[in-house]
Design a protein that fits this description.
By secondary structure, the chain is of the alpha/beta class. The protein contains three helices and seven strands.
């Protein structure tokens, strides 16, 4: 009886490792895509306006909470940190910022955020507002 170390075997395609790789790629692309979705802000009761316009999504949405806290991308910032964030963005003159504040927020908090933005050199600033509902 002749024994060969390299016995000829029929080739097989292993499907399990291929499925593992495909699932890994799927998870990778889902995570990358979720990080590419812009910040949608915090749910709040925005003021209404008859002249509101729909703008494209800005690079930064600055949320001013009722107590005056400033939140950007789920991070709480001081006005100086907000200025530094905008300055570190590259060209602040091209940075798009939308300020979203509840209608119950003191106007001084809004002005503080405007000052921090302008101090950084941001000129493209939008104000979030809800359109007035159409009448009957």
């Amino acid at each position: 009886m002749k024994m060969s170390y390299f016995a000829p075997k029929k080739a097989r395609v292993e499907i399990i490792p291929m499925i593992d790789v495909m699932l890994f790629l799927l998870v990778f692309f889902i995570i990358v895509t979720l990080q590419m979705i812009p910040d949608s802000g915090v749910a709040m009761q925005l003021p209404t306006s008859t002249q509101s316009q729909h703008l494209k999504h800005p690079k930064f949405t600055v949320n001013i909470m009722r107590d005056g806290t400033i939140k950007v991308k789920n991070a709480t910032l001081t006005p100086d940190q907000l200025t530094a964030l905008f300055q570190a963005d590259g060209d602040p003159a091209k940075t798009q910022v939308t300020i979203a504040a509840s209608k119950h927020v003191a106007f001084q908090h809004f002005v503080t955020v405007m000052d921090a933005s302008r101090k950084a050199g941001v000129t493209n600033i939008g104000i979030a507002a809800q359109p007035v509902p159409a009448g009957p």
